[in-house]
Amino acid sequence: MSEIKSWAFWRAVAAEFVGMLLFIFIGLSAITGKDATGSLEKIAQEKIAQELKVALAFALAIATLAQSLGHVSGAHLNPAISLGLLVSCQISALRCLCYILAQMLGAVAASAIVSGYSKKGSLGVNALNVSKGQGFIIEFLATLQLVLCVIAVTDKRRSDVTGSAPLAIGLSVGLGHFAAVYWLGPMCGGIAAALIYDFLLYPRTQTFSRRRDVLLHGPEDQSDAVEIIGEGNSSPGPSQWPKH
What we know:
This protein has 244 residues and is mainly alpha-helical. The protein is built from eight helices and no strands. The chain has a single domain, classed as Up-down Bundle (Glycerol uptake facilitator protein). This is Aquaporin-1.
């Protein structure tokens, strides 16, 4: 619980709010394209172009924001990622909860902004002919590949990670955003990705007591970045990005 006393922690929470607000604003703005008109063939072509535009908007937005905010909060910008990192004992339960609340508030604020300037009346209509079970499987698999990508490319134990981690994550988001993001499927996919990577593909050697300490107090490598409120304001926040 000591992280709640540091400015770095609250700056990280604020970064999640701002990052999610910008991410959802850009994504929703891309979704609210012009209505397709003309022949059925032209409408089909415009629909494909619209889907590509939306996927690229989400991918480039998350890649840019991850590069901009990664050193402040880790740039989770997705409740499923925060939950996945909690399950893999990389962040505390308190940080996960505050991040998710900030992300939700940022998404609501962005939605309100887009709703304020958009004249469309059916922006929330979901895809037809998809059952709840099918939707769950789509969301589960799409979020599994996203969270698996995030945990793998930001693993500080790896020395073989080259290139841009934010770009890899951005492309992963672009791939997953051909399907919309909901709740139960993505959350289960995020947990499954953390369990698969952390306990099966590349297990950590932490004991149960060590994992419990991380969940309650955060990882040890954040202790050097802790900045107690009232004792200065120059310390950077913790980052999940690997150091090279």
